[in-house]
Write a structure and sequence with these properties.
Length: 171
């Protein structure tokens, strides 16, 4: 569930209630800037804001995560399910990120926000060895947020970001 202020932040408690008798994990995702999605910082609903809404009605306990988790998980006593928050904008987990993305058109991206891609599809069709290309792509991964976003999300100008739309990245 991509959280957007004024659009769906009033549905958080309903989704949490859904986990009471259903062994599912609801994932709330902070709204992130991608090509074409008209992101602005004032549309964001952050990790802290989500937690404060949930805590109004429920007792929230953190769940110990795994080293490369991309979401912070929580449980509510008595609920069969749980919930998690993907806080890329306010609490990114780039330090422990081991994710790579292969797009449907055969391009390798080393970060959701990378401004470059490696064309594996063409290399494969030309019978080239793709291993060095993959290694080079991994080594060029930027320290955080694809090197394109600043940690203070209120200072981000989404119009300057070079990237695809999320639906063409996948994931
Ligand atoms: S490195 Fe990129 S893909 Fe990994 S967590 Fe950070 S922003 Fe997301």
């Amino acid at each position: 569930m991509v959280m957007m202020k004024g659009l769906n932040d009033n549905e958080i408690a309903d989704f949490i209630s859904w986990t009471k008798h259903n062994p599912i994990q609801i994932r709330f995702i902070e709204f992130m800037p991608f090509s074409g999605n008209k992101w602005t910082s004032n549309k964001m609903f952050s990790l802290d804001e989500i937690l404060s809404v949930v805590k109004k009605d429920f007792k929230v306990l953190p769940v110990k995560g795994e080293p490369h988790d991309t979401a912070k998980s929580f449980m509510i006593p008595g609920h069969e399910g749980s919930f998690a928050i993907i806080s890329t904008m306010t609490n990114p987990f780039c330090d422990t990120c081991n994710r790579m993305r292969l797009t449907a058109d055969g391009k390798l991206k080393n970060c959701l926000f990378s401004d470059s891609e490696t064309d594996l599809l063409s290399a494969l069709r030309n019978n080239e060895d793709v291993l060095p290309l993959i290694q080079s792509n991994i080594w060029s991964k930027k320290k955080a947020l694809g090197g394109q976003l600043v940690s203070d999300f209120e200072k981000i100008d989404a119009t300057t970001i070079q990237n695809r739309s999320m639906i063409t990245i996948g994931g």
